[in-house]
Structure to design on (525 residues):
């Protein structure tokens, strides 16, 4: 059960001029996505130039923080900060807005994770003014 | 312009050792370079084109400085484990354009005794991919395997068949890191590394290296031995596609048709295939994407001994591949070309030599099926092909 599991380490992201706005919003519990003002493409991960029409008019919006598991694996041996964390789940979550993002699934036994499972975002404070997004089984 | 027939692979060399703590990477580069040149009947003085990956130092600059080569053409193309197949295609194009006539391709690395020594995790994606405990290729390839299983019903036992076929071949290779035949049960009962990939779904981790010498048709003729003619080459990058990554296919869907078209051959002409085998799932998806069977049918295709030489429908990786023989520098691309050339020359082990092997395919996959990768397909043939 999740309550008994060791919490995963919370490594801080490397901030760049391209991704700073995304990580600043995480402090407010907002998962922001970018949308191209010219072609409407929802963009992942953050860029300054649209990868479809190559214009620079890019806007940000708050995403729903909900999605489904597109694929996952259970890592059996961790390393680095995750040395003592295994078994833990690495997954692609397909956000409701379209993009598939790499993340961890938390809040349930790794054996209970399935492809297609509905999930919602959960924020883990890095202690450096931002938080990393992980996903847990959706309530209800 | 086509490169069909514009160049020949005239020299090959695979380092015989799988653990080399007593040599530096550059000593291994030198050793395999001299080995491949000796195989071709050439010397370093003949080399005017140099091709290296980006795993250490300045690649071609460091190698030329170390060996005293004065090239007029250099190429540091870095597409992970597929780099060396790209190097052959690029060398053929350079030779066709008159930019060089004797191209040397080398690979060396010591992940077994010295660590991989290189990180490619500095791109704009790293802040979104490096936080989750992904610590090695198995973790992201597992994501591709899981999704393929989900969409097409592929099973762990079907993936295991790929390891079994490679291990049958490895028995005949005295240098193979894992020289013993294994069963489907051995594979699925081996420890889970990252579900659904078991330890035996993974390639070996070996020190080592290899080299190729690619020459002009005039030089190939003057060398007067059986050489492998470059018939066609195709390459592609498959990216994370702006967050819409589809984990069920590889860049071989693009590189394959480009190579087949240039070579002017069809699938039934391919008598032997070196298929990049970092993991069993890499082989399965690549076979589908190259068009040897329909998408999703790979599991069934590999389940009836189709990959076992010499008489399977698609004999593959007769040296034992990366899965059993050798994956030097965590990259299997150069050994894919080397074994294809052995098959075309009739110099594979007699137990696995494909009879009348006139046309062979070699395919490389560098990077990860789970994120971004470079796919390169090379088609080689005997003189009359």
């Amino acid at each position: 059960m999740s309550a008994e599991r060791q919490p995963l380490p919370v490594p801080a992201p490397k901030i760049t001029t391209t991704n700073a706005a995304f990580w600043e919003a995480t402090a407010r519990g907002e998962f922001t996505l970018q949308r191209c003002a010219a072609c409407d493409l929802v963009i992942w991960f953050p860029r300054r130039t649209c990868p479809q029409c190559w214009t620079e008019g890019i806007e940000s919006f708050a995403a729903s923080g909900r999605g489904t598991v597109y694929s996952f694996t259970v890592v059996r041996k961790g390393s680095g900060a995750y040395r003592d964390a295994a078994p833990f789940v690495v997954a692609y979550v397909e956000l409701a807005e379209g993009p598939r993002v790499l993340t961890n699934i938390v809040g349930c036994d790794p054996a209970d994770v399935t492809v297609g499972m509905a999930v919602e975002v959960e924020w883990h404070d890095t202690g450096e003014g931002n938080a990393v997004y992980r996903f847990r089984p959706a309530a209800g | 312009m086509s490169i069909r027939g514009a160049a020949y692979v005239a020299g090959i060399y695979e380092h015989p050792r799988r653990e080399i703590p007593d040599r530096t990477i550059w000593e291994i580069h030198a050793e395999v370079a001299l080995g491949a040149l000796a195989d071709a009947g050439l010397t370093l003085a003949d080399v005017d084109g140099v091709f290296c990956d980006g795993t250490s130092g300045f690649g071609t600059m460091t190698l030329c400085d170390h060996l005293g080569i004065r090239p007029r053409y250099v190429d540091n193309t870095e597409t992970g484990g597929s780099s060396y197949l790209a190097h052959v295609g690029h060398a053929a194009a350079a030779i066709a354009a008159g930019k060089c006539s004797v191209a040397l391709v080398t690979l060396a690395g010591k992940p077994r005794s010295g660590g991989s020594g290189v990180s490619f995790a500095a791109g704009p994606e790293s802040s979104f991919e490096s936080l989750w405990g992904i610590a090695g290729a198995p973790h992201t390839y597992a994501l591709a395997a899981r999704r393929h299983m989900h969409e097409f019903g592929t099973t762990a036992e079907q993936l295991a068949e790929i390891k079994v076929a490679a291990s049958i071949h490895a028995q005949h290779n005295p240098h193979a890191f894992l020289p013993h035949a294994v069963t489907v049960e051995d594979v699925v009962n081996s420890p889970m590394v990252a579900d659904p990939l078991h330890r035996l779904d993974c390639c070996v981790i070996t020190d080592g290296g290899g080299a190729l010498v690619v020459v002009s048709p005039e030089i190939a003729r003057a060398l007067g031995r059986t050489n492998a003619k470059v018939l066609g080459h195709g390459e592609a990058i498959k990216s994370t596609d702006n967050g819409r990554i589809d984990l069920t296919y590889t860049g071989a869907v693009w590189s394959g048709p480009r190579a087949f078209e240039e070579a002017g051959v069809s699938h039934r002409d391919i008598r032997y295939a070196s298929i990049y085998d970092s993991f069993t799932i890499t082989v399965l998806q690549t076979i589908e994407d190259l068009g040897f069977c329909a998408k999703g049918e790979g599991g069934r295709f590999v389940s009836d001994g189709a990959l076992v030489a010499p008489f399977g429908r698609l004999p593959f990786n007769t040296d034992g591949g990366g899965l059993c023989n050798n994956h030097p520098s965590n990259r299997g691309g150069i050994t894919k070309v080397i074994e294809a050339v052995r098959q075309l020359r009739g110099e594979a082990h007699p137990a696995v030599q494909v009879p009348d092997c006139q046309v062979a395919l070699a395919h490389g996959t560098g990077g990860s099926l789970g994120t971004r990768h470079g796919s390169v397909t090379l088609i080689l043939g005997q003189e009359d092909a």
